[in-house]
Amino acid sequence: MNRVALTCAILVVIANLASGQTTEEKISQAIKALPESMRAGASVVEYDAMGYRTVLRQGTNSLVCEPDDPTVEGFRVTCYHQNRVARLNFERQLAATGKSAAEIFQARSAKVDAGELPLPVAGQMGYFLGGTDEASAVPTRSVRLPYATAASTGLPTEADESEGVWLMQAGTNRAHIMIVGTPSGAPPTASLIESDKVVTAVLPAPVALRAGATVVEYDENGERHILRQGTNTLVCEPDDPNTEGFTAWCYQEGHVPRVNFEKQVAASSNERAEVFRQRVQAVEAGKIPLPVAGQMQYILSGDSLGNATRRGQVARLPYATSASTGLPEERSHDGIWLMQAGTNRAHIMIMRP
């Protein structure tokens, strides 16, 4: 064993004695924040009081996890994409000098903007599990979207626990989608007036964005008609009474050229698979714009309006993969996973059960 490896081993032993936990217990605890399918391949690390990092387990996927720090009140374990390691090393070593959180934030942002630390890649995940103790810990997830804004995504920027999804630190290199708690699947509260297309069309959207959303509908020829011109970047469509069940949806306005294309292809009686194929080809050929990372869609569906629930929220991440994001590609027990990975239709699904 060389000197560096021996030093690391000694540090791990000392840290374990101080916390009363074995390395195996720390690893088991640290990975609890992750979807089950990602746990076995995650690396596990911890930082000492000087801000230096020790690897407890080398993983095989792109995720890194940290166990709870017993010297800090409450319980918190965290996992993140490996791209974040350089930024965390900088932050932890700066914190060890006594700098405040605000000073660290400012210094770190300046380093990223100057290109001295890597910029987060759009779609990179963070997973957190925290509370007063482990038994009461609540899951929180974040999706990195550097410099994203409310306008570019179609997300609210104010926290709303009933919605559970919003954009934090908008317009900065730390901009990210926050996804808090376990999705309830509860329908949005609103006056359910089936005859009012505008009222029902905006129900899938976050409450804070409904009043400013544009509302449109498409006729049988795939032509678009504006029912209400909005003031924000969300566009909503009411349920189509000619189709079975109830579905209303909203999307960021950048999605409009793609929707127009799909509706006009569908008007020629093409099957859904053919519409999908032509749309993918049109994007690849540059005939319609590629989705911008972070553009949101909101879907509300059910057998009828009366029993409709908020089924899903979608964050577009063209060409994203499990490795680039730290997301599973199969449906996850906590309702967040990556669909159509590696394609121009790749997106994060945030599912309401």
Major β-sheet strand ordering: 2-1-3-4-5-6-8-7
The portion of residues forming beta strands comes to: 25-35%
Q: Could you give the order of the helices and strands?
A: HHHEEEEHHEEHEEHHEEEEHHEEHEE
Mean pLDDT: 88
Please outline the major beta sheet. 8 strands, mixed
Q: Structural class, judged by helices and strands?
A: alpha+beta
Number of DSSP helical runs: 11
- Report the count of strand segments: 16
Number of domains: 2
Round the Cα radius of gyration to an integer and report it: 23 Å
Please state the overall shape, judged from the principal axes of the Cα atoms.
Answer: elongated
| Uncertain parts | 3-15
Give the proportion of residues in helices.
Answer: 25-40%
Taking the alpha carbons of the first and last residues, their distance comes to 51 Å
Quick overview of this protein structure:
It is built from 11 helices and 16 strands. The chain is an alpha+beta fold and 353 residues long. Residues 3-15 have low confidence and may be disordered.
